[in-house]
Structures are given as structure tokens and as C-alpha cells.
Design brief:
Strand content: 5-15%
CATH superfamily: NAD(P)-binding Rossmann-like Domain
Structural class: alpha/beta
Distance between the termini: 43 Å
Largest sheet: 7 strands, parallel
Oligomer: single chain
CATH architecture: 3-Layer(aba) Sandwich
Radius of gyration: 17 Å
Strand order of the largest sheet: 3-2-1-4-5-6-7
Number of domains: 1
């Protein structure tokens, strides 16, 4: 039997074929999960095109900064899935480009608020709405983070702060939702060629460094993150919660 036979997953963050969220969607679908993609209005065409590649995938409109749209998205998810949700995937992050180009000490109040609202608070907002759909049978909530939460990565700036807040949120959510058998984890992925990564200056140089320094002497690809998400979404990881799992060819263990 497929690992996720009969399981129902709501995925935020699918944008194009290079998206980590898309790789996760493919991995979950390959093991039998039924999917819903939550999308921003401006991304609708791209998301619809990808959803069509996985038969049965549904779509719900949602801007994560709009509580009314979050309420609507989870209400529609409940309607489609019959009041049940097993898996929630959070692949949402954003900071204004100027906040990544300017020195960190020039971070603006509005840029800070935007980055933390979209990249970190949204996980809390989603989890609040997922809990009623998961509390009867348990579930898995999974977010994406990056090691800049712990180490200085030049030009990552306020996004690093947002990722640190996201990781702390994972731990608090794991503690509070654990009594309902809801697990909350995050994957810290190595640098990938995604739309979001292209907004960070020097990302290609860093990818070259990872391929040289990492124990596996290579970069990862999106499918490796997707398959780790599959594991963390399945019963195989039923004893794991509140953890940050690195998928970066081992780069995080190195001193340089």
C-alpha cells in the first residue's frame, strides 16, 4: 500500500516547476496523497498548469496576509476533504528585494513586518486553522527553513530573522499541538535554483561553495527535499516532532 494512501494534503507555495513545494507535491502524490494547492491570485495560471499534471488536485485561493482568505481557504479545504486534513505544507516566504540588497542595519520597519508576517506568522495562522481538521486523527505540519537562521549568510538579511522566528514557531506549535497527535517539523534545505533563491545576491557562488565543501561534494535537488517531506508526512516519522531536518548534502556540519 502507498505510504499516504487516503491521506489529504494542503500545500501552500507552489509557484512554478522549480518550486520546492512542487517537488513536495509530486512526492506526496506519488505515494497516494490527495492534494489541494493554495495559491495567490497573481500565480493562478502557473499553479493551475501544474495542478493539471496531478489528476484530482484541487485549488483554493489564498493570500496568507489576509485572514478572511485564510478562513475561506481552510473552509473550502474542509469541504473538499470532508472535514479532514492530514498534511499541511508551508512553503511560503517573502521579503521586499530592497531588504536583501541593502545592509541589514538599514532594514525598514515595513520590510521587517512584511518578511515576518508572510514567512513566519503565516505558519501560526495556518496551524490554528488546520488544528480542528487534524485533531481527531492527528496530522503532520511541515515548513521550509534555511540555515541562515543560525549563521550569517550575507544578503539574506531580514529573511534570516524570519526563518529564525519560523523555527521557534515550529517548536512552540509542536509542543501545543502534540496532545492532538499533530506533529510539526521543518526542513532546512540547501541552496536550490528556485524563484525565491534568485532574489538573493551571490546564490550561485554559494551553490558552488556547497558543492566543494559539503561531505557529499554536491548540491541537492528539489526531489530530495520532496522525499524528505514525504517521510516527515508519513507514519514512518510518527515519533518525530519539533525538529529541523537538514537536507543539504551535509553542508551544515562543516566549519567553513
Amino acid at each position: 500500500m502507498p505510504l499516504l494512501e487516503g491521506k489529504k494534503a494542503l500545500i501552500f507555495g507552489v509557484a512554478n516547476h522549480r518550486s520546492i513545494a512542487w517537488a513536495i507535491a509530486q512526492s506526496l502524490a506519488s505515494e497516494g496523497a490527495q492534494l489541494i494547492f493554495a495559491y495567490q491570485e497573481r500565480m493562478e495560471k502557473y499553479v493551475r498548469d501544474l495542478a493539471a499534471k496531478i489528476p484530482g488536485t484541487e485549488l483554493v485561493l489564498c493570500d496568507v496576509q489576509d485572514d478572511a482568505q485564510l478562513d475561506s481557504a481552510f473552509a473550502k479545504t474542509s469541504e473538499i476533504f470532508g472535514g479532514k486534513l492530514d498534511i499541511l505544507i508551508h512553503c511560503v516566504a517573502f521579503a521586499p528585494s530592497s531588504e536583501l540588497e541593502n545592509p541589514f542595519f538599514e532594514t525598514t520597519r515595513s520590510g521587517w513586518q512584511t518578511a515576518l508576517d508572510i514567512s513566519a506568522y503565516s505558519l501560526v495562522a495556518m496551524s490554528k486553522r488546520a488544528q480542528p481538521l487534524m485533531k481527531e486523527n492527528g496530522g503532520s505540519i511541515l515548513a521550509l527553513t534555511y540555515m541562515a537562521s543560525e549563521r550569517v549568510m550575507p544578503k539574506y538579511n531580514v529573511m534570516a530573522v524570519a526563518k529564525a522566528a519560523l523555527e521557534c514557531s515550529v517548536r512552540y506549535l509542536a509542543f501545543e499541538l502534540g496532545e492532538h497527535n499533530i506533529r510539526v517539523n521543518a526542513i532546512s534545505a540547501g541552496p536550490l535554483n528556485t524563484l525565491a533563491a534568485r532574489g538573493v545576491s551571490g546564490i550561485n557562488d554559494f551553490r558552488n561553495q556547497v558543492a566543494t565543501v559539503a561531505p557529499l561534494r554536491r548540491n541537492i535537488d528539489q526531489s530530495e527535499v520532496g522525499d524528505t517531506a514525504l517521510f516527515l508526512s508519513s507514519h514512518l516519522s510518527r515519533g518525530i516532532t519539533g525538529e529541523i531536518t537538514f537536507v543539504d548534502a551535509g553542508y551544515n556540519i562543516m566549519g567553513a
